[in-house]
């Protein structure tokens, strides 16, 4: 049980980067971008083929993120310059990326089990520090379960996540970031201030898909393979993380919203892991579980709000009745 939850937190920390990208397009820019399902695989494919051709894993991961950024920019150009509907431009790019990803990989699946990846390098470096030995000896003395061998990855991913979060928070508070947020709120208004909304949308969607591709590159190295179908339903997972995080932690400030998205991604992975432990559910039901989680996260706040509103009206009515009795 402990190992399952640990694995959920581990993968949730990586998927949180993808969720931040989805947050940027769907919430900040109000752009329904379906490129995500394709750009996630693009990041994985470029990273995998780069590593297999001898490039350092860090460089391969960066190239994967840049490929995702380029894909996002093309989606933005299709919408802004080509005047194609936002939803349709994302769908067109997603379909195109399926073939592009196959071209990059040369085959449907690439295995990196025998390659040196970021995961293997981080585990190797972490083991040399001796921290695992000290902690495991301490846990054994206390009669507790040993830490998994990959727990160092979680620690490093938390640091990477915090850096990405802080950079995103800072960027969205800069002049360009504020213009980006204003574009999502009201394009016509921000255009009246001579802002180039087309460029802002292109850059915003590019950054969004760059983060998604970066997450895809890390997931591929974490799992040891890249598959052309690994991005299917990724947009739903990203939305689930965003919606769950917002429902539980709120969105009063940018810093709080980005933190909510990160925590939402981790909670989503934990809930899915726990759900899959139920006897009558298996891995094939993962998409169904995700859909149900999104529906619950969307409907539950509205039901709770309606109940609070009903209680408020009843209290107001009772107060008016007491007032009428007093006046009588």
Structure report:
The protein has 328 residues and is mainly α. The protein has helices at 2-28, 36-52, 57-80, 86-105, 118-129, 131-141, 151-171, 175-185, 187-192, 197-223, 234-249, 254-276, 286-327, and strands at residues 109-111, 225-227. It has a domain at 2-229. It has a two-stranded antiparallel sheet. The longest helix is centred in the last third of the chain and has 42 residues, at 286-327. The radius of gyration is 23 Å and the shape is globular. The protein starts with a helix and ends with a helix.
Major sheet:
2 strands, antiparallel
Task: Provide the residue-averaged pLDDT.
Answer: 86
Determine Rg (CA atoms, Å). 23 Å
> Whole-Å distance between the termini?
66 Å
What is the number of helical segments per DSSP (H or I, 4+ residues)? 13
Structural class comes to: mainly alpha
- Show unreliable segments: none
Q: In percent terms, what proportion of residues is strand?
A: under 5%
* Principal-axis shape: globular
Number of strands: 2
State the helicity in percent bands. Answer: over 70%
Give, in spatial order, the strands making up the sheet with the most strands: 1-2
- Secondary-structure element order, N to C: HHHHEHHHHHHEHHH
Give the arrangement of secondary structure elements.
Layout: H1 2-28, H2 36-52, H3 57-80, H4 86-105, E1 109-111, H5 118-129, H6 131-141, H7 151-171, H8 175-185, H9 187-192, H10 197-223, E2 225-227, H11 234-249, H12 254-276, H13 286-327
Antiparallel strand pairs: 1-2
Helix pairs in contact: 1-7, 1-10, 1-11, 1-12, 2-3, 2-4, 2-10, 3-4, 3-10, 7-12, 8-10, 11-12, 11-13, 12-13
């Amino acid at each position: 049980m402990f190992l399952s939850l640990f694995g959920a937190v581990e993968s949730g920390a990586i998927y949180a980067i993808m969720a931040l990208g989805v947050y940027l397009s769907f919430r900040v820019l109000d752009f329904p971008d379906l490129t995500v399902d394709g750009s996630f695989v693009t990041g994985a494919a470029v990273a995998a083929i780069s590593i297999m051709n001898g490039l350092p894993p860090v460089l391969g991961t960066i190239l994967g993120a840049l490929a995702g950024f380029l894909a996002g920019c093309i989606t933005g150009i299709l919408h802004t310059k080509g005047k194609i509907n936002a939803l349709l431009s994302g769908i067109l790019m997603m379909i195109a990326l399926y073939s592009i990803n196959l071209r990059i990989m040369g085959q449907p699946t690439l295995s990196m089990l025998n390659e040196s990846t970021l995961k293997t390098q981080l585990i190797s470096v972490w083991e040399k520090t001796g921290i695992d030995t000290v902690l495991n000896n301490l846990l054994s003395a206390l009669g507790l379960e040993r830490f998994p061998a990959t727990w160092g990855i979680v620690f490093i991913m938390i640091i990477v996540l915090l850096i990405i979060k802080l950079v995103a928070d800072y960027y969205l508070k800069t002049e360009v970031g504020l213009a980006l947020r204003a574009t999502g709120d009201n394009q016509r208004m921000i255009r009246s201030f001579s802002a180039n909304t087309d460029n802002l949308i292109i850059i915003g969607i590019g950054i969004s898909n760059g983060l998604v591709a970066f997450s895809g590159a890390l997931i591929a190295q974490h799992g040891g393979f890249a598959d052309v179908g690994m991005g299917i339903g990724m947009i739903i997972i990203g939305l689930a993380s965003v919606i769950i995080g917002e429902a539980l932690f709120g969105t009063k400030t940018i810093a709080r919203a980005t933190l909510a998205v990160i925590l939402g991604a981790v909670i989503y992975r934990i809930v899915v892991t726990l759900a899959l432990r139920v006897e009558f559910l298996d891995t094939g039901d993962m998409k169904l579980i995700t859909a149900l989680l999104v529906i619950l996260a969307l409907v539950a706040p509205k039901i709770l709000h309606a109940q609070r509103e009903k209680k408020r009206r009843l209290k107001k009515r009772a107060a008016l009745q007491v007032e009428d009795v007093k006046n009588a």
